[in-house]
Design a protein that fits this description.
By secondary structure, the chain is α/β, with parallel strands linked by helices. The chain has 3 domains: 89 residues, 3-Layer(aba) Sandwich (D-Maltodextrin-Binding Protein, domain 2); 75 residues, D-Maltodextrin-Binding Protein, domain 2 (3-Layer(aba) Sandwich), CATH 3.40.190; 81 residues, Alpha-Beta Plaits (2-Layer Sandwich). The protein is 29% helix and 33% strand. The chain has 9 helices and 15 strands. The strands form 3 sheets. Strands 1, 2, 3, 4, 5 and 11 form a 6-stranded mixed β-sheet that branches. A 5-stranded mixed β-sheet has the order 8-7-9-6-10. α8 packs antiparallel against α9. The longest helix is centred in the C-terminal third of the chain and has 13 residues.
Length: 278
């Protein structure tokens, strides 16, 4: 019996972020490679320094992650998997006295995701934007007057007390992550395909392009427009659909879309995310 090859997983660090949590959920026990930015994750995988990368692509509250969508459009890597991580945020500090806090530090997205809680429970405190939830935890570790909005893992790694749990405004708050690699995944029968396409600058062009999927009976689960890399005031549509690119129904729809659009690129087919991990 042959041993499975070791996997190196690139992610945007530092440790304790939700990207770190996603890596541990998708690749438990595998080597993790911290990267300073999302584009750097793509660069490490493309260069062969990592086998795959794990990056956030959308949040159920804040929407698409611009850096990931841009990197996908500029890279030749493919999406080969996805997972959904529930976002559970906590308020943490180096002590247990909430009245000593004068500011709260975190990445702008988590601060926005618990804005109502912060306004209600900690009115008037300064909100300090940091590069990640872990950086916010480091600020709290250094200063008695600073609390952090972070994950349980972030609080644990930096030996902080948890002053309040589940402070996110929405109980349905979750982040979808995608796994990127040199190839996409084989068909499982429970798949999703991501693609990018551009349309002609004509009235009704987008409506005509989208009609392809309606005619084929294919459900689009997501679509948004992105600025085309290197082209002023031109846009690319990024969409997710149910099915694998090799499914006859999807294959036919993609061929028809190529006839009705200026360009079409499949970003990858991959198994749809299973139940959300705890």
């Amino acid at each position: 019996m042959t041993e499975r090859a070791a996997v190196t997983v690139a992610f945007m660090g530092p440790r304790g972020t939700f990207s770190d949590i996603a890596v541990q959920a998708a690749f438990p026990g595998e080597k993790a490679l911290e990267c300073p930015t999302i584009p750097a994750v793509f660069d490490r995988v493309a260069a062969g320094a990592a086998t795959v990368g794990v990056v956030p692509i959308e949040n159920s509250t804040e929407g698409g992650v611009s850096a990931t969508l841009t990197a996908l459009l500029e890279s030749s890597l493919s999406i080969c998997g996805e997972l959904v991580i529930p976002v559970r945020l906590c308020l943490a500090a180096r002590h247990e006295d909430r009245t000593r806090l004068r500011r709260v530090a975190s990445h702008p997205q988590p601060l926005a995701q618990c804005r109502h809680w912060l306004e209600r429970e900690l009115p008037g405190l300064e909100l300090l934007s940091t590069s990640s939830t872990t950086t916010g935890a480091l600020e709290a570790q250094r200063d008695d007057a600073t609390g952090a909005v972070t994950s349980h893992l972030g609080a644990e790694l930096h030996q902080l007390f948890i002053l309040a749990e589940d402070i996110q405004d929405s109980t349905e708050n979750a982040t979808r992550f995608v796994i990127v690699g040199s190839t996409d995944a084989a068909r499982t029968g429970h798949d999703k395909t991501s693609l990018a396409f551009t349309t002609r600058h004509e009235q009704g062009a987008l409506h005509e392009a989208l009609g392809v999927f309606d005619e084929a009976g294919i459900n689009l689960t997501r679509i948004e427009s992105r600025p085309a890399p290197g082209k002023r005031w031109e846009y690319v549509f990024v969409a997710d659909l149910e099915g694998h690119r090799t499914d006859p129904q999807v294959l036919g729809a993609l061929e028809e879309l190529r006839q009705r659009s200026s360009s079409v690129r499949v970003l990858g087919s991959y198994p749809r995310a299973a139940e959300e991990p705890d």
